[in-house]
Amino acid sequence: MLDKNQMRNARWRLVLGEGSESAFGGCLSDIDEKRDKALGYLYSREYNARNVRGGSRQGSLGDSQIIVPEWINDVHDLFPQKTIERLERDALERYEIQELVTNPELLQRATPSVTLLKAVLHTKHLMNQNVLGMARQLVRKVVDELMQKLARQVESPLFGIRDRQHRSYRKIARNFDVKATIRRNLRHFDTSRGLLVIQDPIFNSRIRVNADRWQVIILVDESGSMVNSVIHSAIVASIFWGIKALKTHLVLFDTNIVDVTADCVDPVEMLMKVQLGGGTDIGKALAYGQSLIDNPRKAIVILITDFYEGADPKRLLGTTHGIVESGAKLLGLAALDEQANPNYDKAIAQRMVNLGAEVAAMTPGELAAWVGEKIR
């Protein structure tokens, strides 16, 4: 824990930037080092511009185009909203770092990635219509790749599990039992050709998951720190939406609530409506989710948030108690992405657990398995 003097030195070190190390020494924490790097990426241009003799100032950054998206994501991870707005304004107006938000050709050449997708979501409010159109195409490419990657993980637990005690005459690929088929057909091995001849393929039957009439209500916190979870929530909700035995709702929230259930059919449209940052009223969102419940005994409410409540937590905790007491399942997710590394308010999360909610951090596949277990 830094004392007040160390904190003051760290702030001045960040303000004065490179060249002030001798005055303030090693006063920066690990996170301050990251902040210093992000600030230096932008404001070191001030020193470079002053040291250039002759010629005109150039807005082009050459190979720095490659790391602009990473810088944008770092800024949104490391600084509060007002600081983010100032940094973005200086980047665009003072230093002319405009590649990502004004150059459609750059976006057209860019390699689709989750990093670039996050940067687009952070800066789409700064884009003109032409660039926004290109950004939308980029988002669709990344989303399509994620859908292909995650669909099998999410669908498998919900379409039923294999019953290895019973065989099936329904010969479809996902029921094929490779190991049992090899064992059964070893007697047909052709030694002269070195081939195993499959004369009797084995297919397992499946235990049908009783998902009829189950309702899945997904509430997603739009705060900037939740961007990975927002992206994966859109994908998961879209896959759930395609499982007709489930009735899926998707709701985005900060201090306001936006029901984007109609956009579950197209996660790109949902993501382009995301407004990252701002305050958070988790209790208000959870109360809205509770109002959507048709039959509590057949309802699952999934609250995806960092649990840092901006409003009075009494409403959040009271609604938690009401949902659990009604018989509905309530799962709080501190993270939903492929790493499932949570950063959340443990005190609020623990109080919800004490009231009967479950709290975890999950990958999309783990979430689908959890849902599948609850609805069996």
Automatic annotation (TrEMBL):
Transmembrane segment boundaries: none
Q: Which residues form the VWFA domain?
A: 213-372
Which domain of life does this protein belong to?
Bacteria
Coiled-coil zones: none
InterPro entries from the xrefs? LolB (IPR050458), Uncharacterised_CoxE (IPR008912), VWF_A (IPR002035), vWFA_dom_sf (IPR036465)
Q: Name one Pfam family in it.
A: VWA_CoxE
Q: Per its record, how is this protein called by name?
A: VWA containing CoxE family protein
Provenance organism = Pseudobacteroides cellulosolvens ATCC 35603 = DSM 2933
